# Entry
Amino acid sequence: MKSASDAFEACVRFAASEADGLMKGLIGSALQQLFRRVDTTRTDAERRTLQDAVRLLDDHEAFLRRRFGELLLAEFGATGGDDRSHAGPQEAISLDTLELMDDTQVQERVEIARIQQSIQQAAESELDELNRLICGAQGLDRVSAERNPMRPEVYARALLAALTQTGEPAPIRLVWIQALGGALGAALALAYRAQCRLLR
# Structure
C-alpha cells in the first residue's frame, strides 16, 4: 500500500509531467484569443503588436513548453513544499523596485497578481481540497496553503519566468501574460482535480 509520503511525491511528479500539456493548451487558447483581438483592434500600432505577439508565441512554443515544466519542477522541489523563502510576484515588489520599473513592467507584475486571483476564484474548491490533502500527506496537523508546492503563485511565477527567458521585450510579454493567464485558472482547476485523485 502506498504511503502518504509516496502519494505526495507521486503527485508532485505528476504535476511536473503535466506541465508540457498544460502549456500547450494555454498557448492554443492564447493564440485563438489573440487572433480575435487582431481582428477587432482599432489602431495600426496595437494590431502590429498583437500580430508580433502571435508570431513570436508560435515561434517560442517548443521552448515555453519545455522551460515551463523545468521551472515548475525546480519550484516544486525548491524547499520541499514550504517555499516561504520565495516571495510571490506581488510580494517581491518594494516601492524602490517599482520606481526602477517602466510602465510596462509594472503592468506585467499587476497582471501576474491578477492571474493569481483569477486562479484562486476559478479553482477555489479544487485548491482547498488539494491543500488539505497535500498537508495531510506531509503529516501536518493543520492546513497551510504555503505547504502546497502546486499553489497558484508557483504556477504564475513559473509562467512569468518562462516568458521572460524568451528574451522578448516587455510589451510582447504583457500581451502574452494577459492571453495565457486568462486560460490558466480553468486549466488549473482540472489539474488540481487530477492531483487530488492521486492523494485520496
Notes: Residues 15 and 113 are 22 Å apart (CA to CA).
